[in-house]
Amino acid sequence: MRRSTAIAAIAGTMFLAAVLLVRRGKHATGEPTAPQEQGALATPSVETEPAPEALGAAPQSPNLNPIPSARVIDKTDDEIIAALRESVRSNPQRAEQLARESRQRFPESANSDERDALLVDALINQQRIGAARSETYYYYDHHPEGRFTEHLFVMTGVHPTPVGPGMQ
To answer: Is 104 a member of any domain?
Structure first.
């Protein structure tokens, strides 16, 4: 009995804390909070402005690519790799675009090993682990003796396919 009472008290405290945090966040953002005195549930606020479609305006489509274009047609592969290194942590979306642009324009460059590894890092920094693992398999297929094999294994957990006698 004591144990169930203690668990109920802890659960109630956690629920109350969650409610207070949600209310605090709404109050800080200017959203209306539920009325305290009435004891009733708050009704959702109704939008008073007419929708743009009602005014005869065409609906605006959301910008699905808010990152400026990374097309760098006038840059060399070395310049693209330098920009890729700089942006892999600070702007991983741009780093991904740069890596893919470099892969398309310079598929067999001397920097392709590093470029493909930086692409994996950019995907990890975007928390796109599945895509990072797929790109790691691509890396192992295209750079079997690559310099970044161990780094990619540590980052993604993807093992390179063993090569040798009887492993074909």
So the answer is: yes
Burial (Cβ within 10 Å: 0-12, 13-18, ≥19) of residue 98? buried
What is the count of structural domains for the chain? 1
What contacts 24+ positions apart, CB below 8 Å, involve 63-69? 67/91, 67/93, 67/94, 67/97, 68/94, 69/97
- Position of tokens 């990619």? 152
User: What DSSP string describes 76-103?
Assistant: -HHHHHHHHHHHHHH-HHHHHHHHHHHH
- Provide the domain limits for residue 145: 77-156
Cα first-last separation, the chain: 64
Whether residue 153 contacts residue 124, with contact meaning beta carbons closer than 8 Å, is answered with no
pLDDT at 160: 82
Instruction: Indicate the pTM of the whole model.
Output: 0.55
Establish if 112 belongs to a structural domain.
yes
Q: How many CB atoms sit inside 10 A of residue 80's CB?
A: 22
13 in a structural domain: no
In a domain, residue 58? The reply is no
pLDDT averaged over consecutive 10-residue blocks of the chain (168 residues)? 69 63 54 45 44 45 45 77 95 96 93 96 96 95 92 92 67
